[in-house]
Specification:
By secondary structure, the chain is an all-alpha fold. The protein has 4 domains: 1-52, no CATH class; 58-189, Serine Threonine Protein Phosphatase 5, Tetratricopeptide repeat (Alpha Horseshoe); 206-291, Ankyrin repeat-containing domain (Serine Threonine Protein Phosphatase 5, Tetratricopeptide repeat); 300-395, Ankyrin repeat-containing domain (Serine Threonine Protein Phosphatase 5, Tetratricopeptide repeat, Alpha Horseshoe). Helices cover 44% and strands 3% of the residues. It has helices spanning 59-71, 74-81, 97-103, 107-115, 133-140, 143-151, 167-173, 177-185, 201-207, 211-219, 235-241, 245-253, 269-275, 279-287, 302-309, 312-320, 335-342, 345-353, 367-374, 377-391, and strands at 14-18, 24-29. The protein has a two-stranded antiparallel ribbon with strand order 1-2. Helix 3 packs antiparallel against helix 4, helix 3 (97-103) packs parallel to helix 5 (133-140) and helix 11 (235-241) packs parallel to helix 13. The radius of gyration is 34 Å and the shape is elongated. The protein starts with 13 loop residues before the first strand and ends with a helix. Keywords: ANK repeat, Repeat. ANK repeats lie at residues 93-118, 129-154, 163-195, 197-229, 231-263, 265-297, 298-330, 331-356, 363-383.
Length: 395
Amino acid sequence: MALEAVVDGGTNALRVCWAGSGEILAVWSAEEFDMKDDDILVPPLDLKLVMLAHWPPDQEEDKSFLVACTTGHVEEVQRRLLLPQDPNITNEEGRYALHLASENGHPLVVQMLLEAGALHDPTAQDQEDVATPLHLAAYYGHPQVVNLLVAGGAFHDQAMTDTGVTPLLLAAQNGHLEVVRSLLEFRAVPDTATKQDCHYPLHLASQNGHLDVVNLLLQAGASCDKAATDDGWTSLHLAAQNGHLEVVKLLLEARALPDTKTADTGQTPLHLAAQHSHLEVLRTLLEAGASCDPQATHGVTPLILAARHGHTDVVRSLLDKGADPATSPTDGQSPLLLAAESGHLEVVRLLLEAGSRDQKEMDRSTALHLAALKGHTEVVEVLQDGAKRAKRGHP
């Protein structure tokens, strides 16, 4: 609060401002501005008291205040707020002081700003889809700030306007366990999805291998089989693709379906584990009952993907589980042909030992022709030897 004292006298009007404590802060002449702070006013005076909400704006002082909020300079923030400083000023990018303090993890500054009347859910000016202070605190992993903001009135499930991203999703994505825990305790909904691609907090935690966060979300009731609308991927697909074995195990324990196919390519988690050579993930999926020969779009199987990329151990594991070595997708690219063309010698041997035979499929060359064309001499020799043994009736 500030008080303004006006002395009768037309152009010689004087103003005096006091802080809420009663201390005299300034005395000046409205015309000459040359009076000192300790000048004495001699009665009689005609006083006019004016209630001012905040200290008058000052570009340099406001900038200094925002820097103090960014860096966590508690004393400077407190000094300015006692004037009182408007807590809802913004920087050139339209970010409020509370944004800056929350992003950088300064709980004392956040508390002072909230007590001074800072808006708890502001968005940057002139922008449609920007983060609130709670989004920033969740993204950067500041649990104390998250607790202060929600306790101060911030909506725990606030979604960005265009994307639908919530604080819980950001915390789960980045593996901030304590922030996730706090938001769930504040009753954040674990299965709230983004608008455009329908990704859930569990999707992003699984994709990034945040085991403890995955466990916490599952305990809070998150569904392990919800699929993203744009591609149909589930949490198990994402964990398998990225080789997060412990997350895969946890999802399977939560009854995730191992043979769910994506909407875009028809791949199962096993396809993704095979393609990226995540051997232990692949074995875990097979042990959990995943089919060893599921067909994706155009008939592509995990064995075909593993053979194409030369993942010898994956090929061996799939063959041991009964994968068909002679399987061929609609384009005629059998596992043997793909392995031979790419020069994957050991894969070629495994496939031949499993009963695969080199033959021309559709309008393509044989595996032998392609290996010779690519200069894979050892593969050529193995294929020729395999052809001879096949003619003699040997396996």
